[in-house]
């Protein structure tokens, strides 16, 4: 059948004018022609396409050509071109898993020509083997047929070229002869590659770990041998017997981006044995048992039956907040006249300042007081007022010393931007005491409301961990928010950050810059901090280092600049779960008076954790600039594993008791290297919660 198709193809092409006669042109000619016969394409009458848009026809034609280009690149073993096409088009657009007229897929050609780099690139993109090859015999027969038909076609064309006089038809046949000769050599190479291939060796580094109380995870690497054909899938088998009889289950993995598999739905406390085998076009290779040979699904909480620390806390807090709101709303509606006139008088008097200055809703200069500024940014642009100023509103023009308690209260308010009106009502009701603290906090709420009203947005973002202060007595509380979409705001516009920094005329001296100038100078650092503080850790188990230092009015915690919402840390492993067996061993080590250097018995999860902890502690000590010999006085926090959402967990490494928190004036002999900062503990807690 295929031979008849190619013969018809030859007759049709004989009527076309001659083209280039280079070997590559001949290959492209064949590919473009044979592509028209791919099995997934149906022949349509021109009239049936009349109702379709020209754009859709052009798109399909373009994708058809990209599919042909991929086959050509694989056949020519052009890795760069293959990677370029895989990057430019999706697997669906390339018809990556649609066989051509010869019943072959791009992956089939790559593995049978033993081109491992191209085969791996295709596998990473989701390529599959042809479903036509159900057995070794069917693949061998198919290749033999392709070789025989190609050889027959070469002989026919050779005879025609030799016997015919030179003319246009002869020139076309010579081109087709070159294309078929090249095709014949390709098929012979594929057939030889298949015949010389052998089944793959067993996978390497097959490691088994406990993923939860009902699952285990197996990870593995490719076989070491490079002499066999490319591995295209793996099989994971599990059983309660070391002989794997009976077999409880198996799973075939053909998505090879990540070589791991989690076996779900297991019984807690039961030992499960796991083995992994690899597959190539010659079949399945021998299985490789895991190390350790079995795992028992469990979790560290089963050691003493401990419930999760935060179970139900969010719901309880929401319920409590709802109760508080109900009580305060009741009070407000029963006492609307006591405080409302005072609040209205305050807002009216405040608005009178701007009555004759309609273009000065935001402040342009500072004059010894407490202020709020909101920084909204998108890519390299920032929101400014029509006077090219960062939005600033006044909190209190008589407040020149921001107490840490007031600042920390403001940061907590930032978790409730949508509740500012309700909070103002609450504080207004409570102002009968005339407390200076309450008055300051009420002014903070007024400033927030003013900023929200001027910008036309409720969420002002995250509070920067420290205010900006200058020598003139100005204090700026800074909020930061990244805008992801093309959002418009009232009274402000977007400008490039670099333009704002270069065009703004400073009204202060370089020796004593104002808070606004200091903010502009350091704005890139603040934006970088904000972006880094929103990054999340990848799933896994981490070793964290808890180091505090105290001041007169606050306690600060050491964090890395690259991830300031997390303690200083290193990754122990990708599996976040601590099994009951591992936790029992950690408890035993923590209860010893003197540390025992002996390692746990080999090929157990405890031994793996011991080795992982050793490496992690060395890495962490180097990171925070502490001599390794000092690590003998450090301790692992053995009361619990810190769990963050089920995908990230922490073990804490603590300094000696006297060094956990450095007191004011106390020297720290081991100052961490650059790349760290200290955050107020309450600020860190808010960031960690986020």
Structure explained in plain terms:
The protein is α+β, with helices and mostly antiparallel strands and 690 residues long. The protein folds into four domains: 56-196, Serine Threonine Protein Phosphatase 5, Tetratricopeptide repeat (Alpha Horseshoe); 207-298, Sandwich (Immunoglobulin-like); 360-534, Nucleoside Triphosphate Pyrophosphohydrolase (Alpha-Beta Complex); 540-591 and 607-688, Nucleoside Triphosphate Pyrophosphohydrolase (Alpha-Beta Complex), CATH 3.90.79. The protein contains 20 helices and 24 strands. Strands 9, 10, 11, 12, 13, 14 and 15 form a seven-stranded mixed sheet that branches. Strands 3, 4, 6, 7 and 8 form a five-stranded antiparallel sheet that branches. α2 packs across α3 (54-75) and α6 (106-112) packs antiparallel against α7 (116-124). The longest helix has 29 residues, at 168-196. It is extended, with a radius of gyration of 36 Å. Residues 1-50 and 332-360 have low confidence and may be disordered.
């Amino acid at each position: 059948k295929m031979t008849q198709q190619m013969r018809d193809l030859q007759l049709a092409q004989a009527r076309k004018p001659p083209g280039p006669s280079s070997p590559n042109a001949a290959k492209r000619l064949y590919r473009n022609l044979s592509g028209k016969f791919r099995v997934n394409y149906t022949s349509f009458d021109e009239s049936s396409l009349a109702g379709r848009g020209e754009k859709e026809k052009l798109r399909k034609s373009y994708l058809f050509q990209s599919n042909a280009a991929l086959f050509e690149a694989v056949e020519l073993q052009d890795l760069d071109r293959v990677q370029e096409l895989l990057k430019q088009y999706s697997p669906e657009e390339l018809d990556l898993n649609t066989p051509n007229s010869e019943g072959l897929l791009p992956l089939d050609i790559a593995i049978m020509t033993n081109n491992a780099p191209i085969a791996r690139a295709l596998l990473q993109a989701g390529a599959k083997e042809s479903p036509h090859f159900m057995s070794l015999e069917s693949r061998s027969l198919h290749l033999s047929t392709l070789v025989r038909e190609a050889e027959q076609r070469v002989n026919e064309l050779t005879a025609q070229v030799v016997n015919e006089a030179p003319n246009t038809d002869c020139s076309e046949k010579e081109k087709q002869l070159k294309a078929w000769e090249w095709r014949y050599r390709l098929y012979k190479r594929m057939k030889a590659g298949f015949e010389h291939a052998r089944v793959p060796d067993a996978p390497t580094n097959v490691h088994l770990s406990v993923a939860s109380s009902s699952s285990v995870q197996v990870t593995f690497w490719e076989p070491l041998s490079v002499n066999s054909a490319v591995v295209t899938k793996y099989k994971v088998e599990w059983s309660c017997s070391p002989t794997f009889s009976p077999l409880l289950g198996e799973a075939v993995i053909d998505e090879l981006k990540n070589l791991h598999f989690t076996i779900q739905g297991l019984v807690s406390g039961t030992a499960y044995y796991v083995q992994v085998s690899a597959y190539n076009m010659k079949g399945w290779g021998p299985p490789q048992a895991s190390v350790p040979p079995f795992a028992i699904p469990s979790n560290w909480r089963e050691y003493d039956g401990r419930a999760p620390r935060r179970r139900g806390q969010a719901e309880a807090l929401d319920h409590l907040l709802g109760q508080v709101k109900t009580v305060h709303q009741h009070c407000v509606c029963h006492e609307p006249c006591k405080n409302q006139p005072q609040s209205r008088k305050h807002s009216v008097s405040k608005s009178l300042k701007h009555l004759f200055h309609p273009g000065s809703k935001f402040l342009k200069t500072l004059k010894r007081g407490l202020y709020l500024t909101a920084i909204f940014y998108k890519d390299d642009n920032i929101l400014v007022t029509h006077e090219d100023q960062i939005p600033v509103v006044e909190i209190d023009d008589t407040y020149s010393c921001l107490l840490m308690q007031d600042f920390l209260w403001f940061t907590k308010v930032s978790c409730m931007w949508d509740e500012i009106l309700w909070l103002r009502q609450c504080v207004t009701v409570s102002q009968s005491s005339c407390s200076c603290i309450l008055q300051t906090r009420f002014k903070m709420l007024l400033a927030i409301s003013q900023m929200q009203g001027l910008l036309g947005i409720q969420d002002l973002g995250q509070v920067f961990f420290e205010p900006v202060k200058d020598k003139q007595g100005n204090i700026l509380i800074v909020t930061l928010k990244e805008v992801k979409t093309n959002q418009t705001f009232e009274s402000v516009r977007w400008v490039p950050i670099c333009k704002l920094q270069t065009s703004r005329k400073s009204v202060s001296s370089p020796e004593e810059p104002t808070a606004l100038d200091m903010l502009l100078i350091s704005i890139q650092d603040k934006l970088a901090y904000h972006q880094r503080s929103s990054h999340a850790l990848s799933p896994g188990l981490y070793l964290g280092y808890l180091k505090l230092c105290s001041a007169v009015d606050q306690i600060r915690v050491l964090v890395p600049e690259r991830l300031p919402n997390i303690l200083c840390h290193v990754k122990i492993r990708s599996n976040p779960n601590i099994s009951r067996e591992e936790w029992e061993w950690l408890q035993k080590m923590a209860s010893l008076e003197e540390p025992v250097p002996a390692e746990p018995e080999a090929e157990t999860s405890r031994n793996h954790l011991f080795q992982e902890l050793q490496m992690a502690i060395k890495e962490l000590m180097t990171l925070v600039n502490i001599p390794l010999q000092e690590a003998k006085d450090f301790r692992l926090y053995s009361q619990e594993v810190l769990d963050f959402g089920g995908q990230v967990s922490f073990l804490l490494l603590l300094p000696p008791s006297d060094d956990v928190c450095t007191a004011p004036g106390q020297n720290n002999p081991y100052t961490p290297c650059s790349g760290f900062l200290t955050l107020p503990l309450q600020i860190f807690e808010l960031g960690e919660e986020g």
